Amino acid sequence: MANAASTLEGLNGVMGGTAGAPERDSAYRLAVFEELLQRHLRRIYRVAYRLTGNPDDAEDLAQEAIVEAFRAFDRYQPGTYFDRWVCRIMTRTHIDHVRRRARRPEISLDAPVSPGGDARVTLLGDSRDDPQHRTETTDFDGTVQAALDALPPEFRTAVVLADVEGLSYDEVASAVGSPVGTVRSRLHRAREMLRKALRPYLTGRKDEA
Amino acid sequence: MSAHVTDRLSAYLDGVLDVRALEQVQAHVRTCPGCLREYEELRTLRGLLRTLREPVPPAGFAERLHWRLARDASHPRRPSLREVFSARPTLVRVAVVCATLLLLVGIPLGWLSGWLRVAALVHAVGPEAPLDMDTYLRHYLVLSADRSLTDEVATTLVISDAPAPEPPFR
Fold it and tell me: Which of B147, B45, B4 is CA-nearest to residue A143?
C-alpha cells in the first residue's frame, strides 16, 4: 500500500511538471512507468496474445502499445486503471495493423512454397510453424484461439475484452472508442460466430462436426 | 409460442436488458427448447473464454521491453505534426479559424491593395516581360546548371572571336 502511495505521489510529481534536470525527470518518469507496468504486464501481454493469436505478433503489439503509452504518459490520469488505458491504446493499434495488413499483404519467409500454391500469408517470420507454438495450439486452447483469429478484428477485440478479460460494456466501449450499442451488437455477433465454430465443444460432443 | 429471442440472448446473458425485454426473453426461453439450447451454449462459451490458459511471454520479453523503453526515454522522439494536432484538438480548431480568416480577409484585402493585381499581370505577361539584371542572372545560372562545359563556356573560350551572348534585359 505504502509502495502504491509513493508511486502515485511520484507520478503526480512528474506530471505536475516539477522543476528539475531533464535527464533526471526522464529517468524518474521511466522508473514510475515501469513500476506501474510491472503490475499489469501479464494482463497486457494476455490481451495482446488473444488479439494476435501468436507469441511473435503478441510481443510486437504489446511492445508497440507500451512504448506509445510511455510517450503519452503525461496524459495518463493517476488513479485510473493503467492496464485498461494501455489496452485501449493496444486495441486501436491492433485494428490499425490489421487494416494496413489487409491492404498490403506481406510475404512469409517461413511459409512453404508449393507449386501452384500461394506463398502470401499475413506474417513475416511468423511463429505458427514453431514446434512450441504448434504444441500449444493443438489443444483446446488452440482451437478456441483459432476460432478467435477467424473473427473480424473489431469483433475479436470486443469478445476478448468482454469475455476473456471480463470488462463491462462501458469499459469495452471506452477501450475501442465506439458507442455501447455498437459494442453490444459486435459482441452478440462475435459470440454467435464463436458458438457456431465451437459447437462440438459447447454441447460436450467433440466427435460431432 | 412467441417469436424467437436469439438476437437478445447475448444481452440477456450479460444482464443488460431492461425489465420488459428481460421478462419477454425469460418467458420465451422457458417454452422454446431451441432458444434455451442456444442460451446454454452461449453461457458455456463465455465460461470457456474466461478460463483460457494464461499465455506465457517469450523468454527475454521483459528485458527487450525495458531496453526499448530506456532507449525511448534517452532519445525522446519529436512528435509528428499529426500527433501534436491529435493530442490537442483546440490547436486544430485555432488553426482552422486562422486559415479561414486568412482566406476570407486576406484575399479581398490583397486584391484591393492592388498587389495581387500587379502579380497577376506580371504572371500573365510571362517570359516576354522585360527582365532585370538579377532575374536574368538567376535564370541563367539555373539553366546552365545541367549544361555540359563544352556546350557554351568552353566553345566561347576556344573560339575567341565568337560574340558573347547578349542579355535580354534593357
Answer: B45
